[in-house]
């Protein structure tokens, strides 16, 4: 087991090191693809609006959590307009500091800024209507991802949702040495979600992204 533990430690510390060097800007958050931000947000908004509201099985709009929030790009444009309160969690303190100015006036409705890696983060039980996890699951090992999803499930309010939005590879697991992450295929993501004890309520592919980047899928889980 020693090797695995050592590899894991390196996997996480290398990723932390990578993000420490990234400028705290929208372009930095999106790896130079800042131009796709609006397409991404509009797709996410349409997806989320199908799940929110009044009525049976619909999800409330009290409190959301932005996982791997960076400077708060998603909080600012997707979550704060739809939820009363938003919490941000990210491994890089500099990004969270930047978020405080980047979010502007609406940032007053941020509940907590939490500086932690998701592998170590325990969200508060029963706090969230929506837990949004975008472009960050590749930074977790399979086991840590499943454990994190289980903790997220406990953190949901009644009818709450966990949303994963991420790149999927065409086949298998593709490592990215640059930012110390992996990209999994859809079948593997489905399998990990199931093993974490969650069901997929709704799933879509994000359209209109540049052809050269991986397909991006959004999954709502409960």
Automatic annotation (TrEMBL):
Biological process GO terms, please?
methylation
Where it sits in the cell: the answer is:
Nucleus
The alphabetical list of record keywords is: Methyltransferase, Nucleus, S-adenosyl-L-methionine, Transferase
- The EC class name is transferase
Sites where the protein binds S-adenosyl-L-methionine: 68, 73, 90-92, 118-119, 134
**Which EC numbers does the record give?**
2.1.1.244
Q: Which family does it belong to?
A: Belongs to the methyltransferase superfamily. NTM1 family.
Protein name per the record:
protein N-terminal methyltransferase
């Amino acid at each position: 087991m020693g090797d695995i533990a050592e590899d894991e430690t390196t996997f996480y510390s290398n990723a932390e090191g990578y993000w420490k060097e990234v400028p705290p800007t929208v372009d930095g958050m999106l790896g130079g693809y800042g131009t796709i931000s609006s397409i991404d947000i509009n797709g996410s908004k349409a997806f989320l609006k199908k799940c929110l509201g009044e009525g049976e099985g619909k999800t409330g709009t009290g409190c959301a959590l932005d996982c791997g929030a960076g400077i708060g790009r998603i909080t600012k444009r997707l979550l704060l307009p739809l939820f009363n309160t938003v919490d941000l969690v990210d491994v890089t303190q500099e990004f969270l500091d930047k978020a405080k100015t980047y979010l502007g006036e609406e940032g007053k409705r941020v509940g907590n800024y939490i500086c932690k890696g998701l592998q170590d983060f325990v969200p508060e039980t029963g706090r969230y209507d929506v837990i949004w996890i975008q472009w960050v699951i590749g930074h977790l090992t399979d086991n840590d991802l499943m454990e994190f999803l289980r903790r997220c499930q406990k953190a949901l309010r009644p009818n709450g949702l966990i949303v994963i939005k991420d790149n999927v590879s065409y086949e298998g697991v593709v490592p990215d040495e640059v930012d110390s992450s992996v990209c999994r295929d859809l079948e593997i993501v489905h399998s990990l979600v199931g093993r974490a004890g969650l069901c997929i309520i709704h799933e879509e592919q994000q359209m209109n992204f540049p052809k050269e980047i991986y397909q991006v899928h959004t999954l709502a889980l409960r």
